Amino acid sequence: MTILIFLVFYYFLYFCGRGSLILLKFIKNKNSQEIDTFIEEQKTFFPILTFFILGNVVFISNFFISIKVFFPFLITFCIFLIFFNFFDTKRVSLSLNNLINQLIIPILLSVSTYGINFHGDAAAYHLNAQLWLREEPIVFGISNITWTYGYQSIFEYISSVFWIQDNFVFLHFINVIFMVLFFSFISDNVLNKKSNFLFYSSILIVSFGILDNFGIDGGKNGFVVFQSIGKFDISFAIIFTITNILIFDNLKNNKFKNNEFFLIVTLSLFAFQLKVFGIYLIIPLIYYFYFYSLNIKKLIAKIYPFVFILIFWLLKYLINTSCLIYPVIFTCISSLDWHTNGWVQHLVNDVRIFHNSYNFRYNFFRWFEEWRSFGENNTTIFNFIGSFFLIYLSTIFFTRKEKKLSKINFFLFLYLSFLILIWLYSSPEIRFGISIFLLLISALSLNIKQFRFEFLNNIVNKKTLAFLIISSCFLVVRLDSYKNVVSKPFIFYEINIPSIEYVENTSSWNVVPKDNIYECWINIDCVPASWTTYRSRIGNNLKITSNFDSYP
Question: What's the pLDDT tens digit per position in 404-421?
Answer without folding.
Answer: 778 888 999 999 999 999
